[in-house]
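Example 3.2
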Amino acid sequence: MSGGVVSRERELAGQTVVVIGGSSGIGLETARQARFEGAEVVLVGRNAERVENAARELGALSSAAFDATDFERLGRFFAELPTPIDHVMVTGPGPYYARLAEMDFAAARRNVEEKFWLPLQIARCIAGKVRPGGTLLFIGGTGGRRPSGGALIVTFTAGLPALVKSLALELAPIRVNLIAPGFVDTPLSASILGEGLDARREQLRTTLPIRRVVGPADVAALAVHLMTNTAITGATYDINGRQQLVEE
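Structure, written as tokens:
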């Protein structure tokens, strides 16, 4: 201690965090907070320019630009990673909202690739790569807990927690957890809501018990906690300002 300032050990010092979907929003903020806690970060995203900019900003260990649903490319990426790594976080491109009558089945099929097959592929790829006690962390959501969003989002919202519990047993002692946000103020939310974004923000500010909108930093702080707390596995954590209390 010097000058009244207490220093603390950074919680991820000496560890490596891989963030798939790490070039913007929740993924980028998690990588930023992981770096603050002393981790090396590896960033993956679809957009090469955004990934390069994010990697430069954070001083990433490495980065790669590809579509994670290209499972052959995904497998090569993990095979080429130096071993061991400590944590893998997977964000997604967002939900597909559509009722059956309006469903674009090509888009729906891609959503199945992203929401169901991608977690399974990644889970298989990390075996032997993530150290014992490390983390596989998925980002899901709470939007499908009411049946109004359409069949796909309802199915995946219900199914992901069950998948995480199963993977926590199969991959043990690697820990597997799920973060389920509600509305988060990200570029993805802005692209989905368009001109309705400001109205949605104001609605949440006035109705949520926390009286503010959840941001990427809130989710990132939870993600880092789940990486560092080695007693947690097979769990789903809601982070939405208790949005369900006012929208049920």
